[in-house]
Automatic annotation (TrEMBL):
Keywords: Flavoprotein, FMN, NAD, Oxidoreductase
Residue ranges annotated for the Flavodoxin-like fold domain, each copy included: 3-203
Annotated cofactor note: Binds 1 FMN per subunit.
Record-given protein name: FMN dependent NADH:quinone oxidoreductase
Functional description taken from the UniProt entry: Quinone reductase that provides resistance to thiol-specific stress caused by electrophilic quinones.
Catalytic activity: 2 a quinone + NADH + H(+) = 2 a 1,4-benzosemiquinone + NAD(+); N,N-dimethyl-1,4-phenylenediamine + anthranilate + 2 NAD(+) = 2-(4-dimethylaminophenyl)diazenylbenzoate + 2 NADH + 2 H(+)
Organism encoding this protein: Geodermatophilus tzadiensis
Residues reported to bind FMN: S10, S16, E17, S18
Gene Ontology molecular functions: electron transfer activity; FMN binding; oxidoreductase activity, acting on NAD(P)H as acceptor; oxidoreductase activity, acting on NAD(P)H, quinone or similar compound as acceptor
Length: 208
């Protein structure tokens, strides 16, 4: 039985295009696999731990083969708990709006919290990094209101999709699919582009 975690990075609720795509995907996924476990991690619900000085100290202690102490140990426990929840799933759905050519800061915070040695990655001084999240699959639902392929530099750049794909591959998740909704509002084709994006979300839900 599959276990799917929807990581929601949009704070816009019913007005969010990325969350609308996620709803289409999840409805299809549940319909086709009614026994699957499907949960949502809302990154805006206030439960995501920070990654500040104590957490950074804990990470460097682990790198040095030491055990964190005091506030660092508490921060490490919170990071570990967040990672264990994430790692307990074998399928991931990320719904992500584009913010300033990249991803919302709260998603970067999540990535920084879980990307720890011995959890998301291993490291060897000679061979470098090894991703530890192997055997998992992910789908990215990416939206943007201005940027779009072929629109020129005045309409922005894409550090959203490339960053997420690179992070997932680095972490060991190499089976990654993507749905993009980037309508060209100037030509009035938003409805047609939206329909195509939702159809692609349904197709990938059946495939995942």
């Amino acid at each position: 039985m599959s276990r799917l975690l929807h990581v929601s990075a949009s704070p816009r609720g019913a007005r969010s295009e990325s969350l609308a795509l996620a709803a289409t995907f999840l409805d299809t996924y549940r319909e086709l696999d009614p026994l699957a476990t499907v949960d949502t991690l809302d990154l805006w619900d206030g439960t995501l731990p920070e990654f500040g000085p104590a957490a950074a100290a804990a990470k460097m202690a682990i790198f040095a083969g030491e055990q964190p102490e005091g506030a660092a140990a508490q921060a490490w426990e919170r990071a570990t708990a967040t990672f264990r929840r994430f790692d307990s799933y074998d399928r991931y759905l990320f719904s992500v709006p584009m913010w300033n050519a990249g991803i919302p800061y709260v998603l970067k915070q999540f990535i920084d919290v879980v990307s720890q040695p011995g959890m998301v990655f291993g490291f060897d001084p000679t061979d470098g990094y090894t991703g530890l999240l192997t055997g998992k699959k992910a789908v990215l639902l990416l939206t943007s209101a201005v940027y779009g392929p072929g629109r020129g530099p005045a309409f922005g750049s894409d550090f959203q999709g490339p960053y997420l794909r690179d992070w997932l591959n680095w972490a060991g998740v190499t089976d990654v699919e993507e749905v993009s909704f980037r309508p060209n509002l100037a030509t009035g084709d938003a409805d047609a582009a939206r329909e195509r994006a939702h159809e692609e979300a349904r197709r990938l839900a059946a495939k995942l």
